[in-house]
Write the structure tokens for this entry.
Amino acid sequence: MKLERGLLANVFNIPPLLFRFQTNPELLQERKRYKYQQANSFGKWRFDQTTAGTGAAGSLLGLYEDAKELGPLLTATKPMEALEGEPRQFTLEFKLDALEAGPTEPGVRYGGSIEPDLAILRSFMHPSWDLADVGKWLLTGISSKDWSPPCWNRPPLCMLVLGPLSFDCVMEDLDIKITDFQEDLSPARAEVQVRLVEQTHSLTPVIDLVKRTVDVLRSYDRPAIGEDFADATPIVNLFV
């Protein structure tokens, strides 16, 4: 099946990098982890937050917190405290075929070659310039006596665009396996696996938050959503 929207790209690199998947990836694995640690104490056998609450609402909230503190004491298990999240990881596996047309080409891709595609993928693993580097060099270099070009100190970002997914990432791992060759020994087919790690110092986490919140709100538009809310409410589970 041909992809309508599937890219690994960086349009601000010099030169711009635009890799379009020929077909749907055979695998897309998303991994997100969060670190927790156990608290230092178990809590106390007393309802201190209930008595400290102001008014009926404050006392009820305090009672709720005190009731939760009984759990660690009853199980002799320290509660878990959130520490920090780890970057999201994406693993993709896909194939390249020199004799197969791309999603936007009427004939075979690049005249029957996958070498341009491989060159783009490899470029994400090598240091390069981007427009910001060159722009800063030009602006500061005009008035500077030492007009030296910027160093190639980091590989370019890799934006993953795949259907509804859109994230700024860094390419942490690239594995290319050539499975067939042309008569001149140039690669004809390849199996590729890439591992991308989300770069959170970007705008894409903000965009993802908005899209994720909208999709969560859309999930409420289904039958029996009221029963699900009731089943997931602790006070209802106490009596049912």
DSSP finds seven helices and eleven strands in the chain. The first helix runs from residue 48 to 52. Residues 32 and 71 are 28 Å apart (CA to CA).
